[in-house]
Write a structure and sequence with these properties.
- It contains 9 helices and 3 strands, in the order H-H-H-H-H-H-H-H-E-H-E-E.
- With 240 residues, the chain is mainly alpha-helical.
- Strands 2-1-3 form a 3-stranded mixed β-sheet, with helices on one face.
Length: 240
Amino acid sequence: MRLLYCLQDPAQELRFGFHVAKDPQNAINILYNTSKLISNSKKGKISNVEDKWIMSKLNNLIEKITVDLESLHPHIATRSLKDFWLNDFSRQYIQTVRDRISKEDENVKFVMKEVYTTLLKLCSPMIPFVTEKAWQELKERKIVDEESMHLCDWPKADKKKININLEKMMEHALQITERGLALRDKAQIGLKWPLPKITIYIKGKENFKDLQDIIKSQLNVKEIKFESPASKGTEFDIEL
């Protein structure tokens, strides 16, 4: 209920009912259950492109949430937080690094811990009880040391880790992945079947060199070929 009201723009009427609360409840469940993927880790390196991307998104988020709350716009801050943990962190980053998680990569364990613990602190004004429960469970597993999340300092953004260009390029890479998955589905080619090659028609193909491995992994292809788009108005296109 608290998340439902925090998401609501006070200038608009709130339509209330049993079904209205279902979406916030599902969102909270995703945030809470993500704690099961968090494990203890020594300080690792942030060297992989997907790690740099999520850390950039996180530090960008810290700046935005701080400004929104200080400007007395909690509904805008809450919407940004919800979008981050549902889309950026859960559906995009975790899906991208699932193989690294299964291999217990120390670097990804470090990044996951940093992102999740910071996210709990940012969410504490909106959903204090759920986030504190998640924090106490992390404390029992000796992943965090602080007695309570509410006794921690408010996160501060590290501007050196913010890379707007990388965020834009990753957004394009994720759009390419979605288009590729849709084409696989249309052609009735299951994701478990590897493809020898895909051709991506896009401008500025040199910018995607660091993101090729992510696209290959998400689409299960062995080779990516970049070509200039046939139409100037086309942002990008894909051929299987």
